[in-house]
Write a structure and sequence with these properties.
Blueprint lengths: L1 E6 L3 H12 L4 E5 L5 H5 L2 H19 L14 H25 L3 E4 L2 E5 L2 E4 L2 E10 L3 E3 L7 H4 E3 H4 L8 E5 L3 H12 L3 E5 L11 H13 L3 E3 L6 E5 L2 E6 L2 E5 L1 E4 L2 E3 L6 H4 L22 E3 L10 H15 L13 E3 L5 E5 L2 H6 L4 E7 L4 H6 L5 E7 L5 E7 L3 H13 L4 H5 L10 H11 L9
Parallel strand pairs: 1-2, 1-6, 2-3, 6-17, 8-15, 9-10, 9-15, 10-11
Antiparallel strand pairs: 4-5, 5-6, 7-16, 12-13, 13-14, 18-19, 19-22, 20-21, 21-22
């Protein structure tokens, strides 16, 4: 019998298996397909390879601003896809080697619960004292009349042989915004069709406004408060019908995802799921059945690979005898758009709804020296604090380096940093991270490089 059995070999399951083994457990990891899950094979890694290419193309076009003579002659998509495949292959090989070195048994196949302590994989029963569900997510294509022929999924996108000339991207979340930004940077006529009043509705309003403005200036069309009702064939293209409004495009791109719980046999183990199909967990990541945990996309939440990895560590430590709470409030969010965007903690609206007396500090990128000299002046840093005890409640960044700078914001929240402490920190100059310090100073009312309020 294993001490810990992990179902799913994505970032969460991988981290969970290794951490349990480090703690002395006899561990097995079940994976039905490729190690790395969505992140390595169809999500984080492929998308960032593509985003890097889009970023380099953007700066090739702008190189003349720095006196460099260059010419963008087009995209060799075959080379880009090969690079994406090679990076994924290298990561998977590294994962497999580390599992072996940590003594984790890798079982290939689809796991189905027989009961709360046994999982069947291809007619073979695996028993364990504790089980961690880490089965991730898969595409959740919306029901839409006529969509099938026009559909291009995010899974398909990263293996394209040619870029379409025009695309409608459906949705307003981070996946859809990233894909739309990337396509626009590759000169594809791109329209982002958002059902809500703004893109990124779960993020701070300032983030939506700052990023939306920058992306529109790069050629992306954003249509809000709009739902595609049906799709019709129109020659070699497709018409998306949205009430009285009709938009035409070569393809319609969908990136929404849902938790992988079908075919797991959760009911046979007595494991409860929510109305959205995700597995219910407590703050220790334990399901309704004692000794069975769930992490990552299958447990809902932000559906982020780094959240899954952190959850995997917590779940394994608890499975091996600890009693640790998972701090979901410390999970950072990020977009690798151009400019980048990142956040952690509460938005201004959430803080107000929670009853805090909110104070806000803000420092715009156009005043930052490094942003000015590099020509990356889109964005700014917004810091939210509790007016009573000055504790920082949330940080929201749009701008170059946002996905790196947010790490120090996570640490600030974890250590219960105050606005005064943030204002009195020291940063290298010139750096983008100075904006964090300057936003803290603005919050404290003594910003050095902004006009007096």
């Amino acid at each position: 019998m294993h001490d810990v059995l992990v179902i799913g070999g994505g970032p969460g399951g991988y981290a969970a298996a290794i951490r349990a083994a480090q703690l002395g457990g006899r561990v097995a990891l079940i994976e039905a397909a490729d190690l790395g899950g969505t992140c390595v094979n169809r999500g984080c890694i492929p998308s960032k390879v593509w985003m890097r290419a889009a970023y380099l193309k953007y700066w090739m076009v702008r190189a003349g601003e720095f006196g460099l003579k260059s010419e963008y002659k087009g995209l060799d998509i075959k080379v880009l896809v090969e690079r994406k495949n090679e990076v994924g292959m290298d990561i998977r090989a590294g994962m497999k080697a580390l599992l072996q070195k940590n003594g984790v048994e890798l079982i290939t196949g689809h796991g189905v619960f027989k009961n709360s302590r046994e999982v069947v994989v291809d007619k073979k029963t695996c028993a364990a004292k504790k089980i961690i569900i880490a089965t991730g997510s898969s595409l959740a294509v919306p029901e839409m009349k006529g969509l099938t022929e026009a559909l291009m999924t995010s899974d398909q996108f990263f293996n394209l042989e040619d870029l379409p000339s025009s695309v409608l991207v459906v949705g307003d979340g981070p996946i859809e915004v990233e894909l739309a930004s990337m396509l626009a940077n590759f000169d594809v006529e791109t329209t982002l069709v958002a059902p809500g009043r703004r893109i990124l509705p779960e993020e701070d309003r300032e983030t939506s406004q700052r990023l939306g403005q920058a992306l529109r200036e790069q050629g992306l069309t954003i249509v809000t408060d709009t739902v595609i009702q049906s799709v019709e064939k129109s020659g070699s293209r497709f018409k998306a019908v949205m009430g009285e409004k009709i938009l035409e495009a070569d393809r319609i791109l969908v990136g929404s995802r849902g938790s992988n719980t079908d075919g797991l046999g959760l009911e046979q183990a007595g494991i409860e799921t929510g109305d959205d199909g995700t597995v219910r967990v407590n703050d220790r990541l334990e399901t309704s059945v004692k000794g069975v945990y769930a992490i990552g996309d299958v447990a809902g939440g932000w559906m982020l690979s780094h959240a899954a990895s952190a959850m995997g560590v917590t779940a394994s430590e608890n499975a091996m005898g600890s009693d640790t709470i998972f701090r979901s409030d410390l999970v950072p969010r990020g977009l690798w758009t151009n400019p980048e965007a990142a956040a952690v903690g509460l938005t201004e609206e959430q803080a107000e709804r929670a009853g805090y007396e909110v104070e806000v500090g803000d420092f715009p990128y156009p005043v930052n020296g490094l942003a000015m000299l590099r020509g990356q002046v889109d964005g700014g840093v917004k810091v939210i604090s509790d007016a009573k005890n000055r504790e920082i409640l949330g940080v929201h960044i749009v701008g170059a380096g946002a996905t790196e700078i947010i790490g120090e914001a996570v640490m600030a929240l974890q250590l219960e940093c105050t606005a005064e402490e943030l204002a009195h920190t020291i940063r290298l100059h010139p750096t983008f991270s100075e904006c964090m310090m300057d936003a803290g100073r603005d919050l404290e009312g003594w910003a050095l490089y902004l006009p007096p309020k």
